[in-house]
Amino acid sequence: MANNKNYKKSLNQQIENKLSTMLHNGVGTSKKEAKADGTIKDKIFSYNTYNTYLKQCKHFSSWMKINHPEVTNLKKAKRFIFDYLKAQEKKENISAWTIHTKAKALGKLYGITQESKSFYLCPKRERKNIKRSRTDAIRDKHFSKTNNDELIKFCKGTGLRRTELTELRGGCLISKSQLQPWLNKNPNPTRAKLVSDALRFKHSDYFILVKGKGGKYRFAPIIGENRDNIVDRIAHTPKGAKVWQYVNTNADIHSYRSDYATTLYKDYARPIESIPYDRVDTLGRKRQSEVYHCRKDEKGKKLDRVAMVTASKALGHNRVEVIANNYLRGL
User: Fold this and answer.
1) pLDDT range class, residue 326, cuts 50, 70, 90
2) What are residue 302's DSSP bridge partners?
3) How many CB atoms lie within 10 A of CB 121?
4) pLDDT of residue 237
């Protein structure tokens, strides 16, 4: 078929080829260097990102097949991006976050950066408009909290992502007293940073060594009233064997991560009034550099920035804005 001059690749094939090339160019390379030399538009740096973008771009391809079957060229399909995203935005139960993901995927496919004037103007992402993990969802009807009680408690005590849960294996458990010997076996800057971050969690005695997004490792502290059962389950899993053979697809993992983050924050947060005023702004007013001021619908709320950093590191994030907007609840 490759030698048939009349053979044309489908939109799905064209999408897959282009994104696969970007993955090949980007995986294992430095995103920071790519930003500096201007090649970031042509690269995808992780398999998770590739799979997400591929899925969303194929949704676009399916929409094109239904609405514009005459268009079979990826380049010509570009002018329908706006119509597609607008149509998705009008659908029920599609959040602003999902629209942003779709827009980013197509932006990557066509080399359109978010700073570009031609990038789709997505709806604002506001906490009050989150479609899932706030109230009971349709999928909750197919999920038994009783039958999955141990899984739920495990998630709320470890804060792991779904992919991290499915890949979690025996031998990943480490106690606080073992951290320094673990570092001494192979002292290097990466291990030293991992141990340093773990020691922030003064109230935790056990950790899970997790390989997270982008292949980055972290020590996730085991917390909560069920920590002994969690430690026992991991400790009794043979090295290399999966801790969870099956993770229910209807389990609301993001919600459990949110509970985990909120519990951690409350555990380490100081009263706002006790945080020192340690700097003076340009108008001569005293300020608390370790206080985070919430924005948008949470405007006026103040949080302990140090406690936010602690919770953020446990989740595998680097920016406090991420947990402020997506994880911390009821504060």
Assistant:
1) confident
2) 293
3) 9
4) 94
CB atoms closer than 10 angstroms to residue 25 = 15
Tokens of 259: 């509970």
Q: Give the H/E segment covering residue 309.
A: helix 305-315
pLDDT at residue 91, as a whole number: 79
Mean pLDDT of the region 36-53: 90
Q: Which two tokens stand for residue 32?
A: 């920071």
Distance separating alpha carbons of residues 32 and 38, to the nearest angstrom = 10
Ranges for all domains in the chain classified under CATH 1.10.150: 11-125
Is the sign of the CA dihedral 91, 330, 205, 176 positive or negative? positive
Strands 286-287 and 291-293: unpaired
The CATH number of the domain covering residues in 11-125: 1.10.150
Distance CA 244, CA 147 (A): 14
Are the C-beta atoms of residues 163 and 316 closer than 8 Å to each other? no
The pLDDT value recorded for residue 141 is: 59
What pLDDT does residue 122 have? 58
- How long a stretch of residues is the chain? 331
Tokens 């998630």 — which residue? 155
Whole-number percent of the chain with pLDDT over 90: 56
Asked whether 170 and 241 are in contact (CB, 8 A), the reply is yes
Interior angle at CA 155, CA 152 and CA 156, nearest 5 = 85
* Contacting residues for 148 by C-beta, under 8 A, at least 6 apart: 248, 251
Two structure tokens written together for 223: 């917390």
Cβ atoms of 239 and 171 closer than 8 Å: yes
